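Bench log, entry 3. Co-assembly request; chain sequences pasted below exactly as received.
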Amino acid sequence: MQQNKRKIINDPVLGFINIPSEFLYDLIQHPYMQRLNRIKQLGLASFVYPGTQHTRFLHSIGAMHLMTDAIAQLKAKGNDITDDEASGLLAAILLHDIGHTPFSHTLENVLIKNFNHEQITLLLIERINKEFGGTLHTAISIFKNEYPKRYLHQLVSGQVDMDRLDYLIRDSFFSGVAEGTIGAERIIKMLTVKDDSIAIEAKGIYSIENFLIARRLMYWQVYLHKTAVAAEKMLVNILTRAKELSAQGTTLFASPALSFFITKNISDQNFPENEEAIQNFIQLDDSDITSAIKVWMAHTDKVLSTLSNHFINRKLFKVKISDTAFNPSEIEDLNKKYQQYFSISKAEATYFYAEGPIQSDTYNPNADNIKILYNDGQVKEISDASDMLNTNMLSSRTTKYYLCYLQL
Amino acid sequence: MQQNKRKIINDPVLGFINIPSEFLYDLIQHPYMQRLNRIKQLGLASFVYPGTQHTRFLHSIGAMHLMTDAIAQLKAKGNDITDDEASGLLAAILLHDIGHTPFSHTLENVLIKNFNHEQITLLLIERINKEFGGTLHTAISIFKNEYPKRYLHQLVSGQVDMDRLDYLIRDSFFSGVAEGTIGAERIIKMLTVKDDSIAIEAKGIYSIENFLIARRLMYWQVYLHKTAVAAEKMLVNILTRAKELSAQGTTLFASPALSFFITKNISDQNFPENEEAIQNFIQLDDSDITSAIKVWMAHTDKVLSTLSNHFINRKLFKVKISDTAFNPSEIEDLNKKYQQYFSISKAEATYFYAEGPIQSDTYNPNADNIKILYNDGQVKEISDASDMLNTNMLSSRTTKYYLCYLQL
Amino acid sequence: MQQNKRKIINDPVLGFINIPSEFLYDLIQHPYMQRLNRIKQLGLASFVYPGTQHTRFLHSIGAMHLMTDAIAQLKAKGNDITDDEASGLLAAILLHDIGHTPFSHTLENVLIKNFNHEQITLLLIERINKEFGGTLHTAISIFKNEYPKRYLHQLVSGQVDMDRLDYLIRDSFFSGVAEGTIGAERIIKMLTVKDDSIAIEAKGIYSIENFLIARRLMYWQVYLHKTAVAAEKMLVNILTRAKELSAQGTTLFASPALSFFITKNISDQNFPENEEAIQNFIQLDDSDITSAIKVWMAHTDKVLSTLSNHFINRKLFKVKISDTAFNPSEIEDLNKKYQQYFSISKAEATYFYAEGPIQSDTYNPNADNIKILYNDGQVKEISDASDMLNTNMLSSRTTKYYLCYLQL
Amino acid sequence: MQQNKRKIINDPVLGFINIPSEFLYDLIQHPYMQRLNRIKQLGLASFVYPGTQHTRFLHSIGAMHLMTDAIAQLKAKGNDITDDEASGLLAAILLHDIGHTPFSHTLENVLIKNFNHEQITLLLIERINKEFGGTLHTAISIFKNEYPKRYLHQLVSGQVDMDRLDYLIRDSFFSGVAEGTIGAERIIKMLTVKDDSIAIEAKGIYSIENFLIARRLMYWQVYLHKTAVAAEKMLVNILTRAKELSAQGTTLFASPALSFFITKNISDQNFPENEEAIQNFIQLDDSDITSAIKVWMAHTDKVLSTLSNHFINRKLFKVKISDTAFNPSEIEDLNKKYQQYFSISKAEATYFYAEGPIQSDTYNPNADNIKILYNDGQVKEISDASDMLNTNMLSSRTTKYYLCYLQL
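Structure output for the full assembly:
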């Protein structure tokens, strides 16, 4: 490695992180990775937990660091992982988030219809691969789950992958929700491979229970905190209104990259072939959104300016949470109130509120079933192995309903 | 408060702790409290987690500190807690452990038959009360659950009392099992009172789930770690053998206090009336046991010296854990092996192993049912309120079996 | 306080922070304060320490929290602080940073000539005061050091003010430079007042030595890290070039607020009377700068586009540090190299490097002399009281020189 | 390594510690090392900082862990360290404290005249070496500073050795004096070798300044805290009185090991040849002292019983600290007061107080001069390299005087 390449990163969560090779250093320096340093990991949760300003960049590096530990553990237990595979694993986890939009999941479907960040991540990794002369071949194969050793993919994207281990300890650290932390290092020590699949040694069962419950805590306490949900819905409405105004011929201030996605109809279908879309995508980060919305506060459209003003100055939607869907008549009354108050149409009034099930798409308990390996070679799913966790719960999903609206 | 009375304690876990009053300062300085600074909180778990040398003294002060927070919260929510009640609560939680034997639970039944540390705690608090001119009257009433406001007792000894909140964060801190921590401060903020009973506000349900699962993790990972269990069984066998030898007329080195309990048959029945027993009890701490066993390493009795030697030099019993009881024939074989190896009797050979259910008496899930208070005034038990935790589990108990034995 | 006003903030550094009153809650919600949540505390140091994404908003709230502790301590020691004074102190420290430009100190003189952030802070506080019906009168008086009790001002801006205590523990926490932490709580416990001036009790002398040395460590290890300096110089050159191009009639993409400061010549002289300038100032934050520079990467001006590209993709200036000024001939050679390489003029070539003394203006050891109060009533300056710190050092200043330049 | 050998230790300070080899595991299991788990690292400082119950055992293992990091760093920088040397370094640092008496430095000269714990450590290492068939040969050579590569010894015992790095972060952690922490990991990364001597890279100068100031803070805030000094002097007087009584023919309760040192006159001269002394020494730990003093509370000798009672119940000597020695007449008055109060002789009265310079022998600033290596190959002492630290201070020593006495 060249002398002038900084080899150590100081991470408040994991301590000193050594960048394992020049290859990985060069990936970290790539513009697609540097862009992640301008996208916050938790998006609008920082309205609730103001310490959570950390970026997807540091998370990716942290996940890479945990991967080095996982590789060392698995090799120590007799699993053969070649240097090429190790390098592929590290590159795959390092790059696993480069397809994210600004403000993480919030804007995905607003900017690009049927957006799938894994699809775009793959597309971008393949572009880097071309630049780098094919050295990402193994990483791509692992990422796509086409690599023969299937368990390698599970370390990148699976029930206890390095992504989850890192984001839970990291988000717990920066939010100040200390009890949301997990025993990442202990869990990694208990990783093993059984039938080409990642499993956890039986003595790790309590750590896994704790991991599942801590994750659940973080979801409801932080990620899906009702105020964060309110802010997200507000942001979605602002961008949707901007797109609508734009479609009607109104000119809106925006950086060229943001302007592109506001004025064009891009979807998962036409994105991959659209070089201009890709070029604009990789320019886009949190700053474009924030910078534009501040300007929109003075826009002549009452809907856009009101929402922008409230968003920037943190006068967020009020939120109600319920176990059942809200009554349509309650929502209709709300709509009428805004029509009257702002002298706007029924369609325009819909921008001042939002309702629906809480992002249960983000939290899929189905995928959480984890294999536990006993000393006698037996394997059980965690839902069978644990006498504490509710089996049905692990194979079903929780839905809550929110109704959020502008307070007049 | 007098100038020369140190008013602040530096706690690595909770930060600066202010001692709230001269009355509490004087209690802390009482010999019964100072004795707790010579009894380790986790007893022999320090053989496994060498950072856990912390004492019951600091735990008691930590629990008192959390109680000041709990009182402030409950008062802020409109619950009337008088100064006398507050003082009583603080005194009761501060003194709640003074009846403990050395090495915590391990030696309870060995030193005093049918030992009940709450009974002795009460007896000792009443003695202090006499010395202090009756100022512990409210504390005693709360401790005995005779105080009219029943919920005050629950803060001292209940499902989410200050004892548990403190020991979980403290033991997690000193053991290095960081993921065993709980959101003590957050839980305290969600304490409320409903129908003269402590309840948790509904939004705290995830914190409570995490509390229950973290406690379970700490039990199996730390408190009931198989090596700690092995050490405890060894210690019990050593003391039991010492009592037996003593009964046979053998003289053993021991401090007078330890000697008293080795040579006399003290039980919960005769203890309270036996002033000599009480005087010796309050002299007894971890140092008496350790100091004596070191001397017994050179005793002529092969059983006592062998076990003492192994214990002091951390050559602990080997342990097997099983979900079902061990086969009597396996144990019989073991006995014969020791008879032969040491040329000893069948009865003597029993000292070289131990078997039984793992201290399920320490962990009683029945008592864990916690009241959740919803915004509409409804109250549910946590087992009903949580869709994640296994209802049956919360109302049953886990039993594991151990077999531990000297490795030859 | 109204129910819907969020009263507690979860700070990973200081734990739960209670907002002491509705008045302070309303200040926190003011747009001038919310803007600080879009300005990073450490600006470009995040290029070196990627954990330091925290904002001036959370720092301000942290400093307010420490102030509540300081007030409680001083009152407990018999100093009379009225409720109005306490409220003024809390408001003054909360608002002490609202006059900051984006990227903190870096852009101060580029955007506004002879910028003085304290002057602008005062101007903005006075505007809020009008809105709030004069309730900031005491805060302003303390902030301007016109309040009769002079020591109150020192808690807001002095040698050991709450600003410094908070930023040192906070920046240490987020950077991962744990050894840069200070005993903020311990120092606050040792605050006292002597002759209307803040002093430290003599037993706190070691904490103060540690505070001074930790601050020095943080300066050279973090704030003035050579890579951070390089990034800052690059950013200054980019904005200066943008202003120059603009003066020449070139149109540049920028948000209206940024555009205002790029196209107008604003200085400390004309700013206070210029309502348009003030309105644009309060719109400006980090996102405007970042968003614009990304667009400038494609600008036709070679100087602007090259620098913008390097800045965004973290190909920062290379830096040399020296104890003496760099040789003019070395710099001239450098200039010629860039002229040749880019086919540009001598004046244009100067944008590709920067040199000068390292921001010694940021670190003024003169101001660090702290009063130590002995038990006998005697007061000594820390430079006399400490036998460990170099007296001359404390009354002089360190200068280092940097030369940073684009690597071709 | 055998399966049943526990290979990982959970350290709350340093995280998971891997025991690097079976050889080191066997050393850890040796009775001389296990004894350190019964000797507190900070002795009586736990009377002031009740969290500091940690033992010399865990400190030794922590220092060994830091040594593995230091070896890796130095090797990565091109210094050849053979496997035998690495193993010797690890063994030497692991065993560096086995010659300590109970309660660390306090009792050294009381139990053994002219006690030198390094001499006894060496003697004990040599005994283990015999048991282990000479495998400690390199460790001994390094420990005695006879090994040809001189810099290896400095890692075990030098200005920035692994002993100091570990104890500072560890004692800071357990005391709760967080600001006493140092950048151990950062300092290790800056270790280098110049002219067969350990040096620190120039960019590490601020870390070293912080290390020296943090150490100073820990000395005055924790190690030499006046209450800890008071407790130590009390303990010394108790043991000295016990020896005196014993010399007069009085029988005292004590474990055989403690009894040996109370009744015999052992000095550095006769210890090494006295097998019985050595055998008793390795039996002795904190528990013998505590256990005996508790019994002495009831002794007929008024001096011994009074002091023992006050010690056990933490009614410690009151302390005055002064920059100059105390006036003999003040001390004489004190003596008379005790004579009268207890009706005792002048000689007996001396046990109720103590005075002298504060353990300046523990803190020798002379030894702190550390080599700084500049990029140009130049080496400076830290006193010359740092413009912040007082040169004279670094080459002189601070003396304070204490007078502590029983409060009647």
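Residues 1-6 of chain A have pLDDT under 50 and may be disordered. Residues 8-95+136-224 of chain A form a domain with the Hypothetical protein af1432 fold (CATH 1.10.3210.10).
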